[in-house]
Write a structure and sequence with these properties.
Length: 207
């Protein structure tokens, strides 16, 4: 009976180690978030005709001149999306696809990239590589074609949208205190996990 319990315990420990090792090996983890998005409404107050415009014809006698049409507003969209590799393995290619090519975009920091437009008009921006922890931001400036994101993916699969919010930055000593409390908590939990494991192994007769 003791031998059988030892075999079962060894099998369970081996299976647990194999399962945990899947999460410990290096992986590619691409995430993105929209850091900025704002629509400017610029009033069109240019009432004077263009220099090359034809002069307006005089209205027929006895008819009142038609009121001038109200000038339309000019819309200008600025947007930025940040992509970061949170994994521990290098991503060879990162693709950012939009349903149509935005009017203007720029990468910061500058990275090697290529562009491609499919037969259906879909625009794909391919960044050559993204190291672990590395990130970049794509800044958009649009006045006719707003950026409509289709997907972001790497050679490990599609990237996931990461929720985020602006938080207050505390003094350095606050973060040091938080880390100290976390280390104590992890050590305390590890101690009791080991104690519990030893108790279980003694109960089944493996020790």
């Amino acid at each position: 009976m003791d031998t059988l319990a030892g075999y079962i315990a060894s099998l369970c420990v081996g299976a647990g180690v194999a399962y945990v090792s899947q999460f410990l090996k290096p992986k590619i983890k691409i995430r993105y978030w929209f850091a900025h998005n704002f629509m400017y409404t610029i009033p069109n107050t240019q009432n004077n005709p263009a220099p090359n415009a034809a002069p307006a014809l005089p209205a027929p006698a006895g008819n009142a001149a038609a009121p001038a049409a109200a000038p339309a507003n000019f819309l200008l969209l600025t947007q930025s999306v940040t992509i970061q590799n949170f994994g521990r393995e290098n991503a060879d290619w990162v693709e950012i696809a939009h349903t149509q090519k935005p009017d203007f975009f720029q990468l910061y920091p500058t990275l090697n990239y290529t562009e491609n437009i499919s037969a259906t008009g879909e625009h794909t921006l391919r960044v050559q590589s993204l190291a672990p922890g590395e990130f970049f931001t794509v800044q958009f400036l649009c006045y006719t074609h707003a950026p409509q994101l289709a997907f972001i993916r790497s050679n490990a699969g599609h990237a996931s949208l990461m929720p985020w919010m602006t938080v207050r930055k505390y003094p350095k000593w606050v973060y040091m205190l938080i880390w100290f409390a976390m280390i104590i908590g992890v050590g305390f939990c590890t101690y009791w996990i080991i104690k519990g494991g030893i108790f279980v192994l003694k109960a089944v007769g493996a020790l």
